[in-house]
Structures are given as C-alpha cells and as structure tokens.
Design goal:
Order of helices and strands: HHHHHHHHHHHHHH
Number of helices: 14
Helix content: over 70%
Shape: elongated
Strand content: under 5%
Structural class: mainly alpha
Distance between the termini: 140 Å
Largest sheet: none
Radius of gyration: 38 Å
C-alpha cells in the first residue's frame, strides 16, 4: 500500500505566484548632473587648450618660420638665387618665342621651319605683323558668319558635326610651368590634402546669424557674457574658423553665452566634439607642414646636414632650370641652322 502525500504538500505545489499589483502612478526623479557637468567641462577645457596649442604652432610657422627661413636663404645662398632669376628670365623669353612659332604653324598650316622664319619676319616688321593679325581676325569673323548662315539654311559641314577642334592638334605644353622658387621649396603655395579651405559663404552666413542672435534689439542690454561671446565671434570670423563659429552659434541658440555650471551637459558634449574635430583637422595640416624645410628652421640650421640639404635642393632647382633652358635653346639653334642653310639656295624672299 502506497503512502499518501500530505494534503498541504499538494496544495503548495499547485499554488501560483502572486503578481505584484500594478500602479499607474509615475514619479519623476530629478537627477543631480553636477558631477557629469563638471567632468564634461573639464574635457571641454582640455580640448580647448589642445586646440590652442596646435594653432599657436601653425601661427608660428606661418608668421615666423617661413619669413625667417627666406631671409636666411637670401643671406646664405644669395648667389644661387641670383643665378635662378637670370635663368628664369632667359627661359621665359625663349619659351615665348617657341609659343609664337607654334601659333604661326597652327594658324597658317605651316611647317616648323616656315613658322620659325615667319616669326622672325614678324618681329622685324611689327607694323606689318599687326596689320596681318587684323586681317586674320577679320577673315575669322567672316568665316563664323558664313557658318552661322549655313546652319540657318540647314547645311552642315564636318566642323559642325564634330566640332571646331575635331581636326586640329592640341599641342601639349612641352616645357610646363615653373613654380616660384621659394614657394616650391617651402611648399607654402600647396594646400593641405587633408583639409580644405573654409567655405567663405558659410563663414559669412554663420557670422550674420550670430550677429542677429547677439544684437541688443533681440536680448536687450548686452551682458558681460554676451560681450565676451561677441568678441569671440569677431575673432573667429577674422580667422575664418568655421568650427568655432558653429560652436558660438550653438551657444547662442541655447541661450548660453558662456559655458559654466548652468550649461546643459548635452551642449558641452556637442561643443567638445566640435573642438576635437577641429583639432584633428589641425593635426593633419601640421603633419604636412612638419615636412616643409622651413618648419622650425632656427633649430634645424644648427645641423650641418640640414644646411647641406637645403643647398642641394636649391642647386637642383637651378640645374633643372639650366637643363630646360639648354633644351629650348638647342631646338631654336637647330631651326636657325636650317633657316641659314635654306637661305643659301634660291628661295622666296620678302613677306611670307
């Protein structure tokens, strides 16, 4: 005979857990954000100081390093700079001559030698050359009018179908452009690839919005905090600092002229992120500038290897310019020999 289970055990196993009574009352708990705000303000001030240090270094580079480096180069390697200017002047003069030859060859469908001789004739007879240019421009105008009339009548030629330049050569610039001596050396003319210049239109628009926000007609008498923000906006506009203007406008929109114990934590975090983004962009620019030969030159000129490298760079630029000049002079000398050889045989003379 099986023993019977106690009755209380059976009832306990079948008992269901009681659900807590639901309450429809919702209480609001006010959080104390002073600790969070304090930490956020510390992070914001730290980001401000880091960005200020980076901008001071870039300011020193642009206002002290580059002018000082150029003065030092003039004092130390003046003979190379003089030679460079002489070669540059001679090269530009010869290159202009070559461009005139190419223009004459394209305009009148002449050979290279005939174009060379024609340029010499034009330089020796400037008045006749000016009249020739006038006649050429008049003929071009008539040709354009004739083509326009042909289009109106419905007829089309090959130039209409394929374009004006379809059957004309597009000669490359054989000699290229030579950058300014110092700007090439210091890379001051080159912009940073990692950062683009601020949009001037956006800077002006932001500045106008800030002016409207801080105007006394909108808020009454200017307080010390709004005055400080006003001067901050003027300085940011002078630097064309787009991120700083965004930060100032955010503080204007939130009604906070300056960050402090009354500022929302979310606003502090947003402004801190903007500062860090600006600092990262500034770091990228500094990474490029540090590779420039003018960066911190006062310290680097104490190293003889640095001085030797600068001299080698300058000498290399002079040598390249000399090579380019020799190339173009050799080509012009070849044309001169051909023209002289042709003049020894019976040939047409006078105006070509």
């Amino acid at each position: 005979m099986k023993p019977q289970r106690p009755a209380y055990a059976s009832s306990r196993s079948r008992a269901k857990p009681l659900k807590p009574a639901q309450s429809h009352r919702k209480d609001l708990i006010r959080l104390n954000t002073s600790a969070l705000r304090k930490k956020a303000l510390q992070s914001h001030r730290k980001a401000e100081k880091a960005l200020a240090r980076l901008k001071d270094q870039l300011k020193r580079y642009h206002e002290q390093d580059i002018p000082g480096f150029r003065s030092w180069v003039h004092r130390t390697f003046g003979h190379l700079l003089t030679r460079q200017r002489e070669l540059q002047h001679a090269f530009e003069e010869k290159r202009t001559f070559v461009y005139e030859i190419q223009e004459m060859a394209d305009r009148y469908r002449l050979s290279e030698l005939d174009a060379y001789r024609k340029v010499l004739w034009r330089r020796a007879h400037p008045d006749e050359a000016q009249e020739e240019d006038r006649l050429y421009e008049e003929a071009e105008r008539q040709r354009q009018e004739s083509r326009a009339n042909a289009k109106q009548s419905g007829s089309r030629d090959l130039n209409d179908i394929f374009g004006d330049d379809a059957f004309e050569d597009d000669p490359d610039d054989e000699w290229g452009d030579i950058d300014d001596f110092f700007e090439t050396l210091t890379r001051d003319k080159l912009k940073s690839r990692d950062s683009s210049p601020p949009d001037q239109k956006s800077v002006k628009e932001l500045y106008r919005n800030i002016v409207r926000q801080l105007h006394p007609d909108r808020h009454g008498q200017m307080t010390d905090a709004r005055k400080a923000l006003w001067h901050e906006a003027q300085e940011a506009y002078r630097r064309h600092d787009l991120n700083a203007l965004h930060s100032i406008l955010s503080r204007c929109d939130s009604g906070e002229a300056a960050l402090g114990d009354h500022s929302p934590v979310s606003l502090i975090h947003r402004l801190t992120r903007q500062l860090k983004a600006t600092a990262q962009s500034t770091k990228n620019e500094m990474r490029n500038r540090r590779r420039d030969v003018a960066w911190d030159y006062e310290t680097r000129i104490r190293n003889p290897r640095y001085v030797q490298d600068v001299k080698a760079d300058l000498q290399g630029m002079v040598d390249n310019l000399q090579w380019s000049l020799d190339e173009i002079e050799g080509e012009l000398a070849r044309l001169s020999r051909l023209a002289t050889r042709q003049a020894r045989h019976p040939a047409r003379t006078g105006r070509m």
